[in-house]
Amino acid sequence: MIIQSVKMAWEAITSNKMRSFLTMLGIIIGVTALVVLVSLVNGATSSITSEVEALGNDMISVNVFDDKGLPLRLEDLNTIAEYESVAKIAPSGSSSAKVKYLNKDMEISLYGTTPAYYNIQGLKLDYGRFLKSADLDNRSYVAVLSHDTAKELFSDTDALGKNITIDGRIFLVVGVLKEDESFMGAFMGSKSIYVPYTVESRMSGIPYIISFNVASTDNTAAESEINSMLLQRFKQDEEAFNVINMSTISSTMDTITGTLTLLLGGIAAISLLVGGIGIMNIMLVSVTERTKEIGIRKAIGAGYGSIMAQFLVEALMLSLLGCTIGLLLSWGLLELATALAGKIKFTMTADVVALAVGFSSAIGLIFGLYPANKAAKKHPIEALRYEG
Amino acid sequence: MTNKNKPIIQMKGISKFYNVGGEEVRALDNASITIYEGEFVAIIGPSGSGKSTLMNIIGCLDVADKGEYLLDGQAIEKYTDSELAKIRNKKIGFIFQSFNLLSRMSTFDNVALPLIYQGMPMHERKQRAMEAIERVALADRAKHKPTELSGGQQQRVAIARALATHPTILLADEPTGNLDSRTGEDIMHLFHELHEAGNTIVLITHSEKIAQQAERRIRIMDGHVEEEPYTFKTEGGII
Ligand SMILES: Nc1ncnc2c1ncn2[C@@H]1O[C@H](COP(=O)(O)OP(=O)(O)OP(=O)(O)O)[C@@H](O)[C@H]1O
Ligand SMILES: [Mg+2]
Questions:
Q1: How far apart are CA A267 and CA A250, in angstroms?
Q2: Phi first, then psi: what are they for A13, rounded to 5°?
Q3: Residues B147-165: pLDDT tens digits?
Q4: Residues belonging to chain A with any Cβ–Cβ distance to chain B shorter than 8 Å
């Protein structure tokens, strides 16, 4: 009986392809909207999340606003580095500066730091070397360029051993980093130069540390230890400094993207609902048009259940067919988005597909119920007499 | 095989009223008829006399407002719509003036449809449907759709559909009404053959000429029924 209902539904749907397609259109659009929106948010989220994680969920970033006359020095960082919960620590003085090479010049972010910074930030060298502790001790005028900076100053030629001018002082290029492939890097660009902390603090005239990064082994412990150390140092003034724990940031971001997914999914679900109303509309028209057919079926022995099943299966099939087309369309759109975005891969997860199929089936059944009942309840004589 | 004296249809005091604009129309008024197994009966009357109303009640498409109706010994009154559908499916083979085939389906699918509603397994269904199609000599048109068939062929498909379930009675409402006289005669010929093969046939018509071809006539006028008497039979002849 089920096989027969499916066969009959298929015949009914294929006998008027254009109308069936228009009926499905609402579901097609709804499913596409649902799958594409949710997958886009998921793709962007997992890309951002993996970056925040690459940056280190274990990273803690500290900024000092007011040192109460007791500025932090490199020695203090060494004290913090002793903590069991702290793996690495590096100051990061940063300022914007102007760099020149021959006739080219550009604005960059200048970071004054120590060798540990390389690992904490997960930087990657293209060629040359990063800063060494000898550079700090000797206050050497050496510089490591980000990929974008090197590209702009040197095009594709080798930058090693070249002299560049940063804010009027001459530096020797000792290394170039690989391209920043991160999501944020791709958006914001990373035109930066890294020099020894000791050199940068002399240049900026700030001989103490106003911000530093920590790679921790246990970030809750590290956060609280650093917090209490700085509180003590800055006379219990909580406003004097600020400790940012990256893991808090990523969990906040999870909440935001979760809400975003829900919101977009909800909007898409509403369009699916509208698609369901479309199905109901056309099914009602179709039931009226096929009154005679229903009469004939009833005369030769179709009961309420058989007619009900026939029209319900038809509604279900319409919505599932629409769902299938919508999924194919979504797949195409996501491939396109992946190709355009370049760095992010957008894929349909099994969850989203299951959600779309489940939702479409439910909509087909719910909105098919009323027309199917209307068909099944027709009186055989009146239905037979109908001339449409 | 058939017991010529077994009543298949027993109606007693059947009435059907319609309310048209506050006025009561008696489409059937106190009709009592009996039809026996293996009979070929014509119900004849002018337009509006109540023939279709009677056929609908005989065929369990409708129930009477008053009176008793036994079909094959079974009282038809207190059934639900779904139960009536089952009875129609098992016991009645309808043949309509306008054929009433499903236009999207082939000859075979049309004929097999009532068997599907019986839940008959595919293998058996195929065999039964083909048997019925061969019975009306349309085996070479099994895959054709109704629109690809002549009127006479369409009516034969409808007869095959009615025969497929091996019903207790064949109920035909003006089966030749939409056909030219030549084709109409062919269909009547087929009815005679089916009658000789033992089928019980009730044929509704307003044509005296066609009614004369039946064994017996039930005349109906303004809802009143007048029945020619039935001659009881014994094996081998009339008493
Ligand atoms: N659904 C209905 N509502 C109201 N009146 C009806 C209805 N069906 C039939 N009638 C009336 O009942 C009477 C008998 O109708 P019926 O259809 O049985 O006639 P008929 O003998 O089959 O006529 P015809 O030869 O034209 O088909 C008619 O007066 C008709 O108007
Ligand atoms: Mg009539």
A1: 26
A2: -70, -45
A3: 999 999 999 999 999 999 9
A4: 1, 4, 11-12, 15, 292-293, 295-306, 380-381, 384
Q: Which residues of B157-170 are buried (b: 16+ CB within 10 A; e: fewer)?
A: bbbbbbbbbebbbb
- Residues in CB range of B6: below 8 A, 6 or more apart: B36, B37
Task: Give the Cα separation of A39 and A42 in Å (integer).
Answer: 5
pLDDT at position B235 is 61
| pLDDT at B138 > cutoff 60 | yes
ipTM: 0.93
Token pair recorded at residue B47 = 């337009």
pLDDT band at A183 (very low <50, low <70, confident <90, very high): low
pLDDT surpassing 50 at residue A310: yes
> Class for domain B7-234, per CATH?
alpha beta
Main-chain phi, psi angles of B62, to 5 degrees:
-145, 160
Residue A329 has pLDDT above 90, yes or no: yes
If you count DSSP H runs as helices and E runs as strands, how many of each does chain B have, helices first? 7, 12
Considering only the beta carbons, identify the residue of A292, A302, A381 that sits closest to B61: A381
pLDDT band at residue A312 under the 50/70/90 scheme: very high
**What are the residues of chain B with a beta carbon less than 8 Å away from any beta carbon of chain A?**
56, 59, 61-62, 81-82, 85-86, 88-90, 94, 96, 100-102, 104-105, 113-114, 116-119, 161, 165
Alpha helices in B49-180 (DSSP H): 51-58, 81-91, 107-117, 122-135, 151-164
Task: Give me the residues paired with residue A64 across strands.
Answer: A241
Proportion of chain A in helix, strand, coil states, percent, rounded to 5: 60, 20, 20
